[in-house]
């Protein structure tokens, strides 16, 4: 059974969700945790303004990851956090979005607990929620979607995954980390029965000043990502709710294709 940690205790880890980018989306508890940190182990996408909430004396350690390059493998990150906690430090493991939604927070909690050390988790605004809100895309809507699913676009064996029923009428599918595999994701969903006409919102760097959002058809998802040179971080919102957002509507650029699919 989990126990509430003593807020004055030393030698503990705090997994903190930094949200999708905008520092104003941090929770009060997250700000409080950062303010007492001795060590901040942070993801590469965490905004500098968030990092600046930690004391000037706090040690900052970047464990930035990208699709092709990891500063440290996950096992080494786990060991790093444990090693600093064992010195008696308050270690804030600062993660983009929410620690328990595609953030490997579960693995890090297990590692700290296995070492017999105290750990707590401060949830954050997930990328799906933050980016969708910034683009005015409701993930659920009484008239369009009563179910929402989250999947990772970089999962192993994408072609072998069964995504049947994750998207379609009255459903919304949100794909994290799907930019590099956008074409394969579209092919997979269409092969599993989803209509090529399904609208998709592409939300890039949501909540940040340089954010962009586009809307297209599922059949043209890969092409749209390439033409618009979309880069991570971005999420894909697939379903009828994508038609409701404040996105640049690029469907009109492919009217002939849309009519052919109708």
UniProtKB/TrEMBL annotation:
<dbReference type="InterPro" id="IPR014776">
    <property type="entry name" value="4pyrrole_Mease_sub2"/>
</dbReference>
<dbReference type="InterPro" id="IPR035996">
    <property type="entry name" value="4pyrrol_Methylase_sf"/>
</dbReference>
<dbReference type="InterPro" id="IPR050161">
    <property type="entry name" value="Siro_Cobalamin_biosynth"/>
</dbReference>
<dbReference type="Pfam" id="PF00590">
    <property type="entry name" value="TP_methylase"/>
</dbReference>
<dbReference type="InterPro" id="IPR000878">
    <property type="entry name" value="4pyrrol_Mease"/>
</dbReference>
<dbReference type="InterPro" id="IPR014777">
    <property type="entry name" value="4pyrrole_Mease_sub1"/>
</dbReference>
<keyword id="KW-0627">Porphyrin biosynthesis</keyword>
<dbReference type="InterPro" id="IPR006366">
    <property type="entry name" value="CobA/CysG_C"/>
</dbReference>
<dbReference type="GO" id="GO:0032259">
    <property type="term" value="P:methylation"/>
</dbReference>
<dbReference type="InterPro" id="IPR003043">
    <property type="entry name" value="Uropor_MeTrfase_CS"/>
</dbReference>
<comment type="pathway">
    <text>Porphyrin-containing compound metabolism; siroheme biosynthesis; precorrin-2 from uroporphyrinogen III: step 1/1.</text>
</comment>
<feature type="domain" description="Tetrapyrrole methylase">
    <location>
        <begin position="14"/>
        <end position="221"/>
    </location>
</feature>
<keyword id="KW-0949">S-adenosyl-L-methionine</keyword>
<keyword id="KW-0489">Methyltransferase</keyword>
<dbReference type="GO" id="GO:0004851">
    <property type="term" value="F:uroporphyrin-III C-methyltransferase activity"/>
</dbReference>
<comment type="similarity">
    <text>Belongs to the precorrin methyltransferase family.</text>
</comment>
<keyword id="KW-0808">Transferase</keyword>
<protein>
    <recommendedName>
        <fullName>uroporphyrinogen-III C-methyltransferase</fullName>
        <ecNumber>2.1.1.107</ecNumber>
    </recommendedName>
</protein>
């Amino acid at each position: 059974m989990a126990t509430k940690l003593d807020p004055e205790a030393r030698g503990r880890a705090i997994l903190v969700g930094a949200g999708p980018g905008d520092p104003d989306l941090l929770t009060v508890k997250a700000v409080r945790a950062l303010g007492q940190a001795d060590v901040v182990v942070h993801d590469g996408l965490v905004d500098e303004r968030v990092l600046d909430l930690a004391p000037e004396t706090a040690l900052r350690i970047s464990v930035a990851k990208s699709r092709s390059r990891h500063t440290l493998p996950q096992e080494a990150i786990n060991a790093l956090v444990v090693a600093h906690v064992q010195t008696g430090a308050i270690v804030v493991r600062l993660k983009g979005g929410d620690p328990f939604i595609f953030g490997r927070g579960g693995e890090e909690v297990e590692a700290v607990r296995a070492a017999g050390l105290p750990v707590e988790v401060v949830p954050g605004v997930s990328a799906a929620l933050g980016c969708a809100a910034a683009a005015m895309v409701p993930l659920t809507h009484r008239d369009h979607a009563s179910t929402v699913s989250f999947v990772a676009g970089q999962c192993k064996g994408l072609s072998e995954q069964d995504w049947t029923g994750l998207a379609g009428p009255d459903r919304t599918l949100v794909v994290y980390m799907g930019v590099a595999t956008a074409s394969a994701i579209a092919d997979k969903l269409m092969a599993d029965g989803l209509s090529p006409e399904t609208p998709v919102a592409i939300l890039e760097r949501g909540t940040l000043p340089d954010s962009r959002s586009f809307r297209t058809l599922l059949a043209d998802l890969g092409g749209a990502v390439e033409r618009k040179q979309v880069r991570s971080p971005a999420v894909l919102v697939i379903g009828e709710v994508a038609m409701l957002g404040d996105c640049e509507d690029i469907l009109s650029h492919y009217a002939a294709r849309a009519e052919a699919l109708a």
